[in-house]
């Protein structure tokens, strides 16, 4: 049918977002539609050859620890190698550090193929995010010693935020970083500290895929009284390599005191090791002697190099965190797309039953492909609407990143602020609704979908992680309603409203879309009214009691906007693919957007039914 | 807190349904609240000792076939033994066949504990359903040889409907049953046939838990031209034992030609073997010689004894199927309850973060149990509302079964008809919403919930089966809107409406419930209006295009009714448990019932967005 994932991406990139126009900008002047296509071709091919065939394998052969090393399947090593050799790790970097200066939108689209093929076999996303953070906030030496080897695929990266006792509550972390001797500030790799603490849920925290692992670790520097500063303002950021390096990033042969304390055994997403790491427990003691004159061996612990200023750690980490959140949204979207395509193929080939017709079912007629049954079509169209709608949002956000990087001052600032507002949606909405899509993909398969002989049950298990990691649904909702819609006096919300209004105005001109345009305008008004009502008296307890339903309604409205804007373009073309987009848009407006009213109602009325439930009454 | 599963069941049984009143009926005259409690105590104890400790074990040690036998963990054998010895297999049977003449409501409540403890370790439900079918439709010899050994726990039972090529479309089954020689009608165990065919998705289809397995098999008897009759009217029902028996149910030593062709490897529910069975493939050939004078060895195939009249097989099977559907609903409900209780325990003991307050979060304060966070309360209250609401419906349906069995003619007929209408809801609603509850239970646990160190991810995987087996969601929806609400000129729908109206009238008297009463009355009117609009011109294509959204709205309305009726009783008491019920009711009316409007809207408008989507546009 020619409407696989690639066709969906091509349409969104070139017909809808018109990313080829980016090539008029100086940074991308060497690029063209042809170079973009070549990148996508390469990603599609590697994903097909090195990722997809091993997706079930990495589910059944979980990472295991032999006491010394974490063992991963050979296929995982091959996949990493192919990915690193493709150049995708440094695709968006400057030419002078070996990058391709590719627009972020194309990088994101290329990475989508890997997520669809095997979401958990790769660890590229965190490595690139880690390197990007260091390129933005590290010293030239830190970039050279850590970020460049990551971008070359020699090192990989992690983000170490959570601790077993603290979870999402970062103000409560207790990992401690103390200056490593009197000369601690003189280390060429940055102010040198000794870290002690435990970090939980660290993806790719231990493995042998790369020569080294660059942990970016949040920790607190004790005050003069030896106590850790309270709150998130006391958090600093440190580079803690698994193996110590010299100023050029060469391994010194000395292991740092970062020890694997346990592997988490997960419901899905099993291709990626997920670890509990102990920093400075003494399993790999590092004495001062190995490090030259500035070191005196005091303060046992893992060696860490501070990034930037003390107390600014969380702000720097959000550089990486926001990328990771959008990455999670894309992963969720691609798992949804993979299930959609699998169930579509199944529905086209599996024959069973006969359509309901005025004449009733005639058992003398042969069975039909199940795609002819109305309820199967409903389940497929819902998946298409969820997943292609989510994909549009992901690519729209990626395009905003490019605007932030290469637009003029006003456009870049607008893009930055829109991204602030849209990030919680880009992360949460696909996590919830592309998971629902995966459940529908199972349902289309019937009993077969519940067996491990078909891929869809794994997509569903893998996708369940996405509402949890990199900030749970609840955290995203507090971020949206408690912070993002208020920031800069609501300017981000107003900017989003202006963009929605622009789509509404254009869609009103299309007779087939005018009713949808009105529905979207009404929905946005309802979201704004609920936002105002929630904060009517400024009491955050009442305002935020229904933050998740608010986020659900906000998200459905944003995806309705995406679909209307996509349909506006599709309405100008013809052919089955455009017909399908118009139908998915109609599905979203008829079946999905009306769901926002029950969600907004509890926000608007500041319903405290849940908040007031006494513990003992459960 | 004293509000575990047992407390929830006790309240519903004795304070809400007042099942102790059943003891005034002749059949239950020997019973009392004390005998009921003793049964529940026993079930709770066995479930705690023999089921719950092994729930993870049966997930990791899947059934495997060694070429001859299916190997199950020793714990599964122990669980079956304890269950059989408890007498629960024959709890509801007459005294004269060894039963307890227990009300079905108490039997169902007792079985709930096993489902909550380990849903997949047991195979009791199908065995009882199988025996009940034979007690109702079998000959005295068939009852003696097959049903009584099942009720005693010596044999177990299956239902064999689906075939690999036919799935839900039973009219397309091709399993063939031919009379076994001239004397086929003279066999003491019933008219004897030879069966050949393949049956898919057969739970407990092969194992060594019992001396024998009684397969109840749907097959078609070829006509004089050798062709199978088309449609479901050509289906007959056969008893096909794994091992052949004499007229007293004693094993003859001869294996029947039923061969395991494969084990299905499932996403969850792994404690139960699920099989593809080949009937009559010749692996265990049965010649005539072993069977006395009436046999001549013609017609290779598995020996099967016809139940009742030819062509009536599906009607008989629905005796078992309806029980199985309610059993699925109860299993889904109990998986939901298990997750609710686990996440409640976790939320009460896990400390993290601080409540949002007007003063803002103060990091100098210690972290609080996460149950104090509004969004965690929301996720717990949603689970309570889903699962205890579903439990109320399950027990209400069970009470209707007792009415059907022991009420006067009019009451029994009314109960039968109400059960017809409510069965698709009792099966589908918990399958969908108690699965959602399990997802919330994972979310309450954060990352820990996604690991296999906590039970909730398994509940979620186990529960995903329930929307598929014993009739998919789509099949239930067609049954509801295409058949049940229309049957007997809509009399079932009217009866349900009258019961809802009675609850509404009573609840209006309670000031705290009056608004909910009005909301329920409005919701029911909306369901009726949508039903009429769907069938406005009698065209089933348009009427049934949105059967699933219709069923979702119908289900939410039924559960709202359950909650209002429960709240009516809770409002007369006090204490935290009653407070919790009133709050869960309020949650359901504020957060859930308003969802019906978007579902009903597409039914009422006979929206064909999905039905008209062309295949090539996906």
Q: Which helices and strands occur, and which strands form pairs?
A:
The structure is a homodimer of 618-residue chains.
Chain A: H1 5-16, H2 33-51, H3 55-60, E1 64-65, E2 70-71, H4 74-86, H5 104-117, H6 124-137, H7 140-151, E3 155-160, E4 176-179, E5 192-203, E6 212-220, E7 235-241, E8 243-245, E9 251-255, E10 258-263, E11 274-279, E12 302-307, H8 313-349, H9 374-406, H10 409-445, H11 456-463, H12 473-484, H13 487-508, H14 514-534, H15 540-544, H16 547-570, H17 576-592, H18 596-604
Parallel strand pairs in A: 3-6
Antiparallel strand pairs in A: 1-2, 4-5, 5-11, 5-12, 6-7, 7-12, 8-9, 10-11
Helix pairs in contact in A: 1-5, 1-9, 2-4, 2-5, 5-8, 5-9, 6-7, 6-8, 8-9, 8-10, 8-11, 9-10, 9-16, 9-17, 10-11, 10-12, 10-13, 10-16, 12-16, 13-14, 13-16, 14-16, 14-18, 16-17, 16-18
Organism (chains A, B): Tepidimonas taiwanensis
Domain Acyl-CoA dehydrogenase/oxidase C-terminal (chains A, B): 311-479
EC number (chains A, B): 1.3.8.-
